Protein 1
Amino acid sequence: MAWNEQLYRDIMDGLQVDKEFITEAAGAFRWDLEQGLQGSEHSSLAMLPSYIGLPTGKETGEYLTLDFGGSNVRASLIRLSGNGKFAVSRQVRKSLVSEEYNLICAEATCEKLFDFLAQVIGEAIEGNQAQTYYLGHTFSFGSKQEDINTARLIKWAKEFAVPGVEGQDINALLTAALNRAGLDNVKPVAIINDTVAVLLATAYSYPDTRIGSIYATGHNTCYMEPMPDVGRPPCVLNMESGGFSKLVPTKWDIELDEASEQPGRQRLEKMVSGRYMGMLYSQLIRELFNLSTTPELSAADMSAIMGDEAEAARIVISLLGYTNSEIVEKLRELAKAITIRSARLVAATWAGTLWHLSGQGKIEPQHIAVDGSVYQLMPHVQENVRRALYEILGDEAGGIEPVLVKDGSSVGAAIAAAVASNGQ
Ligand code: BGC
């Protein structure tokens, strides 16, 4: 199979984002954020109010949570004990896609999807219909909220395509499905984005946290805005930063966007998130070897390739039928280049947000809440985020502490349910 060395060099060059590029990206992100705050149509950031502020740390009680935002859903029972303490007493996790069914594609139906969610919730409470449960729902798609419990899906992302859900009130759909399942005792009281959930969960233990980010299959960041609008109280804003569109894409980013479910949307997400890094890597490998079909490599495969030479050789054999050490090395370098670009671009958006929060002054030392498999597991990500923050912010980066949140989506949903049901 023909290897195109010139194309490889062009790709590797195209994936470089140097200090100047990321510093400009951070500035452009701040500009978009501030334009978005004023409702300008020139901003690519949605800046969606979440109708909730940061927790006091005193929220307590037991809550049911639903975490719905990727191909796995989770329902959990969470006990909040205050002062950052919580315990997960039960958790049920199910996939929305299996060999027998696919509940997220264009052929799926809204009713089947929500009936499945109700079933998972039913399992988490072991069918108990006698007790009232307040449910916090982490719904990880851009939604327009009207209050803490009403969120209308604007557009699917992450290649979800179920018809009949866009524009709908998500917790109303869930409530109807719970009723169909005979679970009237489960009361959805709050719905939040996953970025908001990780921010709430982290701020529960680290009150200096102002920014929450998901760096996983999808990507997005929210932050606590002290002045969201004239007359509105301080509120967490979901920026839907995956939609940031002011970066110059490479020719390959454009090709990937055009082949995706929603061309033109989620441009940053398509350059940085796990779902799309795997797609980009696969597409580049097809072009480099002039393959007739595109291999289906995921971000997890990229991690394996970067992390272990023997594993890399095994994957290369499965793709090409042979291996040699030079090709293995080049494919490892390619995976690394895509990953490092992703980490540096995400850091740029955080830096832009920190600049906004600091106004004209110094950036306050603070934690940044981060959740997600890419941040947690992909080689090279964490150190390159940190390096990029230093390149953009200089010494002020020293006070910034990204913290990896475990169970953030569920704990944040429990906190939101506590706030909404006055359990504080
Ligand atoms: C969604 C966001 C979400 C992010 C991370 C994106 O595709 O639009 O709402 O926060 O994924 O899950």
Protein 2
Amino acid sequence: MAAVCMALTSCQGAQAEEEKSSIRIGISLYRGDDTFINNIRSQLEEKAKDYERERGIKVTLDIQDAKGSQNVQNDQVERFISLGCDVVCINPVDRMDASQMIDRAMTAGVPVVFFNRQPVEEDMNRWDKLYYVGVDAKETAVLQGQIVVDLYRRDPGALDLNGDGVVSYVMLEGESSHQDSLIRTEWSVQTLKDGGVPIEKITGGIANWERSQASAMMEQWLLAWPDTIELVVSNNDDMALGAIDALERAGISGVGVVGIDGTIPGMEALEGGKLLGTVSANKEVYAAAVMELAASCALGQELPGAYPLTEGTYYWVLQEMITAFEENQ
Ligand code: GAL
């Protein structure tokens, strides 16, 4: 009896729970108005429906918006647990401050799948029922840089608008506390250098992933450096769209803009010839990984083999470059 009880303690070993015919998943988003997160949310809802249909297990999703407040998110996680959620999926507000949520989940024995905003390693190492789904930030940045390198090699004049042999660029950065911002900024530029694109940085700034902040910033830069900016490198699509808004307001055309995310509005801008390119993680795979991991934990089943975890904890979603110029060729 004792041996059987011990075997029941792990996610993979909970045979007693195999009979479950319904699961309840609590999901907390750092900000429901973030475009990329919104796209992932829709995919999560789709994947939950697919899961129900394909496996015959009823999936109840409780999705909450933490509206940028860690305190609100802590309360949401607390509520999920007291409502009896089998697993919680957290897109942390403050990735450095996940410990309270982890404490609560560990005490209740409720596994956690974090996504998009990576808690620090020390926190992730506290328990073997903590998982993370996201993208590799360096890979994202190298792919973004590669879009520009490819275009420059094909047609230098498409980027070096004034023909002075140098591409003058500005950089739009995401939140300073986000693990992706610094790495994206550093490695996209490094890739341009490694790829032989002669570049000069005019200026850069933190627009916190937001279209409106990026638009205001770009407007100022266009006034401060008239007829100078040839390329906008943006840490995400929404800020790239903000830069495009400012360029359109100023009546300027021809400036290259590259983003990251492959959001729905980003793809529309790409198809409309406004965005040179973007880097996109497959959002269906992203959401499916979160859902499959969460459901396996909730059902006490073995983790899904289709989503192999690095160090038993991390699932890295593959990404691809999407460019306007290849498609138009
Ligand atoms: C990034 C994404 C941004 C923003 C951020 C939120 O990965 O590129 O657009 O959604 O996550 O954490």
